[in-house]
Amino acid sequence: MYFASNIKFLRKRRGRIQDDVAAALNLKRSTLSGYENGVAQPGIEILVSFSSYFNMSIDTILKIDMMKLSESQLSELERGYDAYVKGSNLRVLATTVDTDNLENIELVPEKAKAGYTTGYADPEYIGELPRFRLPFLSEKRKYRTFQLKGDSMLPIPDGSWVTGEFLQDWREIKNGSGCIVFTIDDGIVFKIVENNIEKDGKLVLYSLNPVYEPYEVHINEVKEIWKFVNFISNEIPDPVLPEKQLIQAVASMKNDLERIKARLGKDISDIKEAD
Questions:
Q1: Structural domain of residue 135, as residue ranges?
Q2: For 112-150, how does the pLDDT look when each residue is reduced to its tens digit (9 = 90+)?
Q3: Measuring CA to CA, which residue among 151, 143, 144, 147 is closest to residue 111?
Q4: Alpha helices, DSSP H only, in 169-242?
Q5: Based on the structure, what is the number of domains in the chain?
Q6: Are 48 and 58 a contacting pair, CB within 8 Å?
Q7: 186 and 263 share a domain?
Q8: pLDDT tens-digit series, residues 151-208
């Protein structure tokens, strides 16, 4: 059991002194100190109070050694993604950290995608992937970068590196969001997502390139989802004609067509007069 070390760790992580927590839980400071030092054991009512104060389930506070969790995993718990609270299976993610226990961004190049389908949950496989950091991304989130293949997401060029944030709760996906979706059958795809999980347990995946038809995947087939953050490419995407310029171009074409019609009408009249 990790109750003593966990409540001390969580208190310090929140920048609280013992007097603050003891007052919030209606305890004596000496009693709280006894819990943190393992010399006193709490009853069920006290456990419920700690669970409510830290917004974590009793099982999590008792059974999970939080000092061994990465920053992103702690952040997930603090944001309410607690498997014991939600009654769902925690999506365990193999990850790597640097010497300061900060999450790396692992790089999954095109040639490594086949191996990812079997090694995505293997810490040894993930540990062999190239890794880097982007200083402008949050240290409290988990990111991974995948190489894009094909033209289905044009104007994002083929070969681009797409970075996504790991999603723990898939119900939070907003319609129209860009996501990297990993399934065993289809592998890793980057698509625009329509979230129908609550309705029929499915996602509808759309390409930016209209040549490709949308398709559905059942949520049971999905292993990981990463919310789009940014992409890196050594190519400049093809320009997209702005809406205002497009309207002007259509109007100009209409004017040209009217002039052609008028000219044709005049030429026909001249021919009739000559006859």
A1: 105-232
A2: 999 998 899 888 999 999 999 999 999 889 999 999 999
A3: 147
A4: 197-200
A5: 3
A6: yes
A7: no
A8: 999 999 999 999 999 998 888 899 999 999 999 888 999 999 999 988 888 999 999 9
